[in-house]
Write a structure and sequence with these properties.
Blueprint (H helix, E strand, L loop, with lengths): L1 H10 L3 E10 L2 E11 L4 E6 L5 H8 L5 E8 L2 E2 L5 H5 L3 E4 L11 H8 L11 H10 L1 H5 L10 H12 L6 E5 L7 H16 L3 E5 L3 H7 L2 E6 L2 E7 H5 L2 H8 L4
Parallel strand pairs: 3-8, 3-9, 6-7, 7-8
Antiparallel strand pairs: 1-2, 1-4, 4-5, 9-10
Amino acid sequence: MTTATAHTDSAAPLLELSGVHTHIAAYHILHGVDLTVPRGEVTMLLGRNGAGKTTTLRTVMGLWRASQGTVKFAGQDITRLATPQIAGFGIAYVPETMGIFGDLTVRENMVLAARSARTAAQIDAERLAWIFRLFPAVEKFWNHPAGKLSGGQKQMLAVARAIVEPRELLIVDEPSKGLAPAIINNMIDAFDQLKKRGVTILLVEQNINFAKRLGDNVAVMDNGVVVHAGRMQALAQDEALQRSLLGLAL
């Protein structure tokens, strides 16, 4: 009986948006978004610029409030909750701007993100060692001002900060933007390792090759709605569908 219940729970999506509308001032940005993010997998959110991808992420996090529809996390309605409450469920968000504190050191940025630690010594040592293996630059520049890091190093720090404590869901907006191919490979490896640890990942991405290599599932947005959802591999193999949805081929 217990096993059956656990199986049902694990089969349910971790994150589910149903009929979500979002208005920002006078602008109606999301027009009824339906999005399902299965547990333990990587879901890519694709679409042209202005399709509503970032607004979708910000609405999930409560940074912008849905005017209609529901957002559920692990079966619980989080639509009306404040951002700190949503984060408290084990959801980490890395915005496109990365949101790091440039005047603080890498170490200070990490301590700020680790809510259970007041000093670097109080951060879980095993977890920190794992993060250092994922992102060697975080260890290398531990005592350097974060503002002096390169774009790729800042992105690594932003993701490292998001996972300094265990998370159930990691949401990242355009992680590969402006990164060199070697850093992109490093980022793909890091997300793959996170997935193997049971973290569910939702990524907004413009780099189609990145999406194809990493994604299990894909949702494509256009004009504030999801116009296609399915397995990433199926979209990667269908050039006609790619052109009709994205105006390009993978």
